[in-house]
Design brief:
13 strands; alpha/beta
Amino acid sequence: MTTSNAGPTVSLTGVTKRYRATRALDEVTLALTPGITGLLGPNGAGKTTMLRVIATVLRPDDGEVRLLGRDPLDPDVRTEVRRRLGYQPQELGFPRGFSAFAFVNYMAVLKEWSDRDSRTPEVRRVLDLVGLGDVATKRISRLSGGQRRRVALAQALIGTPELLVLDEPTTGLDPEQRMSLRGVLADIAATSTMVISTHQTEDVAALCRRVIVLDTGRVNFDGTVTELVKLAEGHVWLADAPSRGALAAWRTASGRYRNVGPQAPPGAEQVEPSLEDAYLMLRGGAQETVETEVAS
């Protein structure tokens, strides 16, 4: 199977996925190219459904999907795509009694790494990548939640896939582990296409040039992190109390309140916005107002 370097790794055109009367994805159209794309959105926005479609776990009800230049509805193509794809789901069941090494080795076998002489070093490599080399023989049931999350990530990294689909990869990790993992993912993204769904806006800000915000199954924003942050310029300020009309306000360590909203009060102490501030602006329903002001 060959693909053209000129085309996107992932192409969704008018993709819709329904669960009874609910549209988890509503005519989504986008293209993903090499590098890391962050996927943000509230619970129920359709993020996991989109990732499962990209990972060939779900078929859309309408629309067209192209992965690595091919149509995954064809069973032979789907099998070939899966050989070149790594997927870390939000929840992954582990067989009872398996060690970290045994589980990742089992997943490598399923991915057709039939030669033990090449498979064993690869399993050790990905466990080392996620910082689990020293607990490889430990039963998964005795690992912490963060360690189990890294076992799930390790199996997705087998073979350095061309397309990597990760659902909440940093959940349960401490700051040092998250920092280390960012370095690993950034290195992999130099030669692959990666899409990461997360609630951690700081991970998106640190890793991703492009960010997609989903809401109620639709793309609410698609652009660079810088472009999204720019939407909140002039809409974040500090005050001694929560401001009337703010979309969100919270008490900071200094004792003052950080306010995010469409209109700062006269004379307010405005501060530089973060990606989280900009995301809150979108979630607050102020996107249209902010875009108009930026364009003027």
